[in-house]
Design brief:
This protein is an alpha/beta fold. It is about 35% helix and about 15% strand. It contains twelve helices and twelve strands.
Length: about 300
């Protein structure tokens, strides 16, 4: 079979050559690319003869998939699958498998890092000191003792709870179903409304589905404390982002930390969050650590080996 990895995935060329040699010994052709191209024409050109393709979070619509007439399987080097036309894949019997779990530690650590940044104004004061300014009369806030609302208690939400326990936080949790493991960590399951009302910080860890689209909108933001912080390292559209920007401008909430948006960065300079006060914005780096990428490579190519029975 022909296997194509359409982008570098953070893997060295030497590693790719090792994979190529391994697949060749099993009678398979492996092709890889050391640059990332996201346009439909390039993707179609790279994938059109593939039986098996490896891709991360590049948008993969039906217009590309229609040209991949040999495609039987996608090994996705990403946790979410909302960037792939899954309906087309299902209709045409194309198997799709994600790389669940590779970035659990990376994303949970970043979520806590954004909390600390906002509580101690790390990003703000980096700019201030470079402008020749000092602390003034500013007093930061500590994470210890804060009530943190964790929305979504899958692997990443649970890992975040473990980290927050080490800081001495009180944990409220919201999820479609309650997990005994999370309860054993001391988290208390409550309704979303109750979580929003009681939390000093709300951190989002749910996938993007029809049920979670704009889960946090204007009405939900009004329930939060005026001193509360909102952290989103999940998916951009879990929030109504213009509503979040308005909440920051109107002091409905105190601050926000975002790593995800409606589209992949770079963002337009007039993006609502870039105009909002006390908002730390990152270019979708939660999953992108050296350790996570090494784990991801192992997962996606183990999936390929399994599908080929090698």
């Amino acid at each position: 079979m022909k296997i194509v990895c359409v982008e570098p995935l953070g893997i060295s060329q030497e590693h790719f050559e090792e994979l190529k040699n391994m697949f060749a010994t099993k009678g398979h052709d492996f092709e890889y690319y050391m640059d990332r191209k996201e346009d439909a024409d390039t993707l179609a050109t790279r994938m059109k003869e593939a039986d098996v393709a490896v891709i991360s979070n590049i948008k993969l619509p039906a217009e590309v998939l229609q040209q991949c007439t040999s495609l039987k399987y996608l090994s996705v080097a990403f946790t979410g699958l909302d960037h792939i036309d899954l309906a087309y894949c299902k209709e045409h019997n194309i198997g799709v498998q994600n790389a669940a779990g590779y970035s659990t530690t990376a994303v949970s650590e970043l979520a806590v890092g954004l909390m600390l940044d906002l509580l101690r104004q790390v990003t703000h004061f980096d700019g201030a000191i470079r402008r020749g300014e000092g602390r003034g009369m500013y007093l930061g806030r500590e994470l210890k003792g804060k009530t943190i609302g964790v929305v979504g208690t899958g692997a990443i939400g649970t890992a975040t709870i473990r980290l927050l326990n080490a800081f001495g936080c009180n944990i409220l949790a919201y999820n479609r179903s309650e997990h005994e493991e999370v309860k054993k960590l001391g988290a208390k399951y409550v309704s979303l409304e109750e979580l929003l009302k009681q939390s000093d910080i709300v951190t989002l860890h749910v996938p993007l589905t029809s049920d979670t689209h704009h889960l946090i909108g204007a009405e939900q933001l009004k329930l939060m404390k005026s001193t509360a912080l909102l952290i989103n390292t999940a998916r951009g559209n879990v929030c109504d982002i213009p509503a979040v920007a308005d909440a920051l401008k109107n002091h409905t909430i105190l601050g926000a930390g975002f790593d995800v948006y409606e589209t992949e960065p770079p963002l337009a300079l007039d993006h609502p969050l870039l105009q909002a006060p006390n908002c730390v914005c990152l270019p979708h780096v939660g999953y992108a650590s050296r350790e996570a990428f090494d784990i991801r490579a192992d997962i996606v190519f183990d999936h390929v080996r399994n599908i080929l029975n090698i």
